[in-house]
Amino acid sequence: MYRTLITRSCLPRIYSKLDLHLTTLKPAEVSNKDVQQKPSASLTDEVKFDHINKTGIILLNKPKALNALSLSMVQQIYPKMKEWESDGKTELVIVKSTSPKAFCAGGDIKALLSKTSDGERLRNEFFREEYKLNNLTGNYRLPYVAMINGITMGGGCGLSVHGPFRVATETTTIAMPETAIGLFPDVGGSHFLPRLPNNLGVFLGLTGYRLRGIDVLHAGIATHFVPSDRLEEVERRLVELPKANYNSVKEVLDKSSQSAIQSQPPFSLQEQLPLINRLFSINTKDVETIFEQLKSDGSEFASKQLSTLEKMSPTSLKLTFEQLKRGQKLDLKDCLIMEYRMVQNVMNGHDFFEGVRSVLIDKDNKPQWKPNTLKGVSDKEIEGYFSKLSSTDDLRL
């Protein structure tokens, strides 16, 4: 695991390396072609599909952008998964990347930055379609295996963590770093984060801390661990199953993972788990109390987390903490409906656009958050982010 924290100096590396396609961004760069791209046999397709024996395979194929999810990608994946789910010819679905560097680095947000009416329309459509896909993966009737090899952040987590099988490798890097750009851990983050043990989800959601390799399994995000050079072998065994169901898929993955885990180190956060569990408890009154606890703790670990949190959007921190509190009591469907309401309100605010400008566009890493203190963010304001949308605008799942 990375032992360095997400500080002012390394925040740009989280995003600039993951979304290099944003560096030449122009707000008007949104075309009908981007929105309505159709599947074809071209090698330049952002998503490719294959079907071997009784296994449907989704290949994320946008390596230059580290497979950042676009609306067109989501619009291709969702109907194909629905088709496989009911065609009677498919028993298993595997999603993976054609790039060894990344499974999926998040959502492709370039079209979301325009404050024009077209930008608003695309934001609404992108999040609606993405959350529908997240809900489908979490409620899929076929075994669903995500090979989370390489960078897996934001939207990449949404495409993987809700399924029953998530296979990490030594190259896997997982994070939900949205508070650094004025957003919150969406794509079902309100469902899976508060369910991680030892309040790790609260810690990860607020700080954006990166888990790497075997730590992804230790944290409970991955279900299995396999060395990257054995992924093809594991996939072959899955595809060759005479009958693919939950138990037979699990048996293949269990055997492959058990032998690999023996040579891996223990959880790099093992010694800090008691601190994390106490300092980031979801039962804490509010984020201000978490700050106070970190200040009074006095440990080096607590000081580093405090330094990290002080650079995040105050609104995002308070919004995220409330989101996780509510999410622990909701199923995935209701979490996604809640997040859709939240994201629509965030997109009408200031901090998201300012965070993206600072970290991804100008790269000055000096976001001017409004408000710029936790005290300046009222409970009433946070409550407003959860307000229901009109019946025509709300997310339907």
Automatic annotation (TrEMBL):
Which NCBIfam families does the entry mention? Answer: PRK05617.1
All copies of domain Enoyl-CoA hydratase/isomerase, residue ranges:
56-386
**Entry protein name:** 3-hydroxyisobutyryl-CoA hydrolase, mitochondrial
EC number(s): the record gives 3.1.2.4
Q: What does this protein do?
A: Hydrolyzes 3-hydroxyisobutyryl-CoA (HIBYL-CoA), a saline catabolite. Has high activity toward isobutyryl-CoA. Could be an isobutyryl-CoA dehydrogenase that functions in valine catabolism. Also hydrolyzes 3-hydroxypropanoyl-CoA.
**Does this UniProt record's set of keywords contain Hydrolase?**
yes
Q: Which family does it belong to?
A: Belongs to the enoyl-CoA hydratase/isomerase family.
EC supergroup of this enzyme: hydrolase
Query: Which Gene3D superfamilies has this protein been placed in?
Result: 2-enoyl-CoA Hydratase, Chain A, domain 1
Cellular component per GO, a single term: mitochondrion
Xref: InterPro entries: ClpP/crotonase-like_dom_sf, ECH_dom, HIBYL-CoA-H
User: What CDD domains does the database record attribute to this sequence?
Assistant: crotonase-like
Instruction: Cite the entry's keywords alphabetically.
Output: Branched-chain amino acid catabolism, Hydrolase, Mitochondrion
Enzymatic reactions: 3-hydroxy-2-methylpropanoyl-CoA + H2O = 3-hydroxy-2-methylpropanoate + CoA + H(+)
Tell me where it resides: Mitochondrion
Pathway membership of this protein? Amino-acid degradation; L-valine degradation
What GO biological process, any one, is recorded here?
L-valine catabolic process
- GO molecular function per UniProt: 3-hydroxyisobutyryl-CoA hydrolase activity
